[in-house]
Structure formats: structure tokens, C-alpha cells
Amino acid sequence: MVRVRFAPSPTGPLHIGGVRTALYNYLFTKKNKGTFILRIEDTDQKRYVPGAEQYIIDSLTWCGITFDEGPHLSSGEYAPYRQSERKGMYKQYAEDLVKKGFAYYAYDTDEDLDNMRKRLEMSKMLPKYDAVSRSSMVNSLTLPADEVQKRLAANEDVVIRLKLPRNEDVRFFDEIRGWVVINTTQMDDKVLLKSDGMPTYHLANVVDDYLMKITHVIRGEEWLPSAPLHVLLYRYFGWEDQMPVFAHLPLLLKPDGNGKLSKRDGDRLGFPVFPLQWQDPITHEISSGYKEVGYESAAVLNMLALLGWHTADNRELFSLPELIDAFELSRVNKSGAKFDLQKAYWFNQQYVNKLPIEEIADRIRPIVKEKYPKYNEHKLNDAIALMKEKAVFVKDFFEKAPYLFHIPAAYDMDVITKKWNAQTFEDLNNLLLAMQSIEDFSAISIENLVTNYAQKNNQKPTQYFQPLRISLTGEAGGPPLFELMNYLGKAESCNRLSFAINKLKNHLPSEL
RNA sequence: GGCCCGUUCAUCUAUCGGUUAGGAUACCUGGUUUUCAUCCAGGACAGAGGGGUUCGACUCCCCUACGGGCUACCA
């Protein structure tokens, strides 16, 4: 039975890289018909951010990623799922290691540790608490036994450190990277239990994964260097035969320059790094979210899935169930991926294009109603149909094509000064008159009208297009002209045309 | 600095010793749309460098370079 956990730390909003980690975990779990668990790793009280846990759950819910067990659910036989609520469980495991001789008590102050590091650095050695330096520190290995007992009885501040073996290769198999070997001389005697009684990540992670019967640990590459430490812990606890499979995911990198994607990059480069908008509870600073910017969650998920994973057949469009079906851990890449804004747009456009018109209508109706109170509800579907293929975001319908719902508030003067000439007003007036007189206001009928007018005047119909378009929409681009006019209808088209003629006459230089 | 991981077009990537190194986005050109933000066709663009191994290396090994991660009583 496959059991997989996503174990974020509630130190702030979950960023898009974290969402991808959650996604890969989710896909792997569902592909293998396993159980997906949310575990909150809140062992660092100093870094705890209120609201972060709820934000994580809300973000993943928006994406469609759900859990079978977790702190927010009533189900689950391995509760609690918040490490702070499991605090009492960890001490016995750490002490068990001390008893077995794999760990020890340490009483060093911050100053002691500082001095040790400075001393080692000066003698050009790695500044770490290890098999060599531990012998000159204040711990249960250097202190007399009765002294240790005394300190323990007095409840002095103490940490428990892992006693690393000297010069031993620790190897483990990573599903994505293959065999990885690290020698213990490169590692240090990590603190397992902090002086406040809380476990560190390393202890809590291993103990909880064991207790919760986790079978696969899929996490970011930043954990690769400490994986051997975790392997050692499984070994010393006597759980090595139940050790989960490890898979370390590549990181998401900044689109420009170097380094891993960080909170600041998003708004600097014009795309969100967070799924949902987040307001920092202390600084009140707001970071934008994919949802609020207007992305479809399915598009975000699809894009994220492809950042570091691909199928052999080059397919790029996947629904969530299709992702589950196609996902294979072994096809996850080893190298970091840069986020590509243009590709994100493309994905979103693909998804908006697939949306049923009725759904788009339901979603934009409240906003259209508010922004353009006089819009025509009966023609909302037609308006959407006119723009659907071009929209990248659902909000484009009302933000980029306000003329579908309202007479233009302004006209693109650049285009007007280029395309307009002395004859234009006369032509527009004549066309207006002609339009008022026809019954059939279909696209073809209007086109015929314009063509006939052009022929009569020995002109190309083309030259009337831009003036008409600008008059009707205020803009140079948009849906096909005659289809647009048909959508607006005879009354509205004529109304807009005469309004534009009057308005522009007063605003244009007299020589036009 | 030390250790670990990585390195195919600008970007995401396919390739698992023999390919004209394929696709997608972006870009450029042409065509539709006499608008464009869609659509269609075409184009340019890549195996970091150097050594091996091999009949043959993008693919395997080594070195270098570059990139990233870790190096806390943070996760």
C-alpha cells in the first residue's frame, strides 16, 4: 500500500515550486492508488506564520489537489498531523538513540559553538560539530557520567545530537538520481532534539514517516545533502527495512539570471510565484497569486507538471486525471527548470479556449454587470463567442474588449491621425445614412453595403474599415468588423457611429 | 572554501551507442482574418570545452568550465 505525504512548513505562503512538489507527490500517489497525506512541519516556533497552513490547504484545493489524511480532515488514523501536536512523541526516540550509543546530550552554549567554529576555521578545517570536534565540547561524551546525571536531573538546557560514525560511506538509491554516496566526514553531528523539546526536521521527519508508514518520500533537491543523515537514522532506529523510497526533485529556477525562484522574483518579472494572493500578516505586503491574476487552475497545474517532467510522446496538454495516468517518477528530470511566462500564457489560452461559453458567461456576468450596467444580457454569449479564441485570460473579455459591452470611452488617436483624411467624415456620414436605411443587418449585408459604397466612389472598401472600427470600438483591433457590427446590432452601431463622428470632429485638427 | 547534484535550440523538453538530433513556447517570413490577440504553412536556432572507451558517441568514463543545492538548536 502506497502512502505518500506532502510535508510543508507553515513559514509563509506555499510558493509555486512547493505546489509542483505537492503535485508530483499527488500524481505519484494517485497513479499508484495510494493514500495522500498532508503533514504540517511546524517544529520551528520562531518561524511560524499564522494563516500559512490554511493558505497551503486553500492553494492546493484551488488546484484540485486533495488529501486523504491531514490536520484539516477528521479522517486518518495517524493523527495528529501537525508536528507541534506530536511534540511529546519525539523525545523518547531521541533518548532511545542515546541509550543505544548513537546519540548524545550536548550542553554547549551559542558562544561555545561560535568559538568552536571560529577556531576550526582559523586552522583551515571545516567548522562543524563532528567526530573530532565533539571531544572538546561540553557533552555527555566528554562530561563525567555523574555530572551528566546531575545536569539532567536539574533540567538544564540540553540538545540531543546524532553521533556520526567517522569516515563511513553512506549510500542510498534515489528514484530520480540513482545511487548517491556521501561520506560521514562531510556531515556533522546534527541536533535531533532542540532545547525547547521540539525535534528538528531530521528527527521529526524520520520518526513521523516511520510512524505514518510512509512508503515514498518525494521532496525538493535541497534535501539531497541531508538524505544520508536520514538513512543513518533509519538504520540506528532499526527501521532500515521499512525505509521509504527517496526521490529528490529538481528545483524551479528564476526565468532570468540565476538562482532558485524566490518570492521577490514574481512581481518583479510580471508573474506570480504564489498560487493565491498572499498578504503578509506583519508587513501587510501583498504578493499576487495565479488565481487573482486570472489563471485557470488547470492550466497552472498542467504547466507546472511539464516543468521538470515530460512524456516520451511530447504531449503537452493534460487534464489532472490524464496527468495521473501518464505520470512516472522515473521520467522526472534531474536539472532545474526555468519558469517561462510566455508558455504560461499559452497554456492558459488553451484552457480558456476549451471553456464552454456558458461557463465564461457565468463567470464574467457579475463583473460586466458592475462595470457596464447597460450591457445586453441576451447578447452576452454572442460577445464571448466573438472573442473566445483570442482570449488568454477570462478577464480579457471585459478588460480588453470593453466595446463589446459599452460605447467607447476614448478613441485611439494614433490610428485616427494616420488613417483619417478630409474625406473620412463625409464617407462615414454617408455610410451611416446607408446603414440606417437597410433592414438586414447581417454581416454579409453590411459588407455588401460598404462594398457598394466603395464601388460607387471608385474606392477600395478597405479604406473604410479602420475608420468604422475605430468609431465603433475606439480601438484598432478586435473581432471581424462586420461580425462585430452584426453583434452590436443596427441601432447600437449607428448610434456609436454618429456619436464618434460628432465627437471626433471637435477633437481633430481642422485640416482633417 | 568544502561536499553533493546537474549541463541538448532563448525557454520547457524528446533521444535510453548508429536519427537529416524530434516537438512545444517565444522569435522571423508567408497565407487567411483586408484589423488583431486567433488560425494555417514555412524558417532560423542546440548536444559547454577537452580527453578517453568504441567500428561508431548527445548518449558510457575522466578532467575542466559553468549552473544549482547544502554547509543552523530553519525547514
Question: In words, what does this structure look like?
Answer:
The chain has 512 residues and is mostly helical. The chain folds into four domains: 1-71 and 250-354, Rossmann fold; 85-249, Glutamyl-tRNA Synthetase, Domain 3 (Glutamyl-tRNA Synthetase, domain 3, Alpha-Beta Complex), CATH 3.90.800.10; 355-395, no CATH class; 413-511, Arc Repressor Mutant, subunit A (Orthogonal Bundle), CATH 1.10.10. Helix content is 44%, strand content 10%. The chain is built from 21 helices and 13 strands. Strands 3-4-7 form a three-stranded antiparallel beta sheet. It has a two-stranded parallel sheet with strand order 1-2. It has a two-stranded antiparallel sheet with strand order 5-6. Helix 1 links the parallel strand 1 and strand 2 (35-38). The protein starts with a strand and ends in a 5-residue tail after the last helix. The chain binds one RNA strand of 75 nucleotides through helix 4, strand 6, strand 7, strand 13 and helix 12.
